[in-house]
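Blinded run. Sample ID left blank on purpose so nobody reads anything into the name before looking at the predicted structure. Input follows.
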Amino acid sequence: MFFALMLAIALPVQAGPVAPVAATAPSDAAALEALNRDWLTAYKTRDAATLARILADDFEAVYPGGRVLRKADVLRVATNPTRIITDITWDNLKIMVFGDVAVVSARSRLAGTDAGKPFTATNDFADVYVKRDGAWRAISAHVVRAAD
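Blinded prediction complete.
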């Protein structure tokens, strides 16, 4: 018996894949959806206060072209007066909650001007949120250009 117990303790345990669980509270999915809406809208309205509230101080993101931006970088880019976003939409929103961690993904479409030159962009993104002190904060984002 002792040998079997020692063997059981010594053998590595392999867990299966972790599946998303239902939101820990009915409001989790709604809160994350609202944060996504507020985050994207803040780019159009250049709302630094909203972005500062959503992004954790240790936020880090990878954007198209491999650019790594931290919270201060995102705030600077989002409030740049020469970059004007006239339209931003998103679809295929998916919210997966894993306890106090969540992933929000979707496709966004932007249009506007940058230094007076028109631009459009279609991006797929995945944002990672962590619930800290009862509030969701974005800690990571990965954004890639998508073909329409």
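Unblinding after everyone has recorded impressions. The chain has four helices and six strands.
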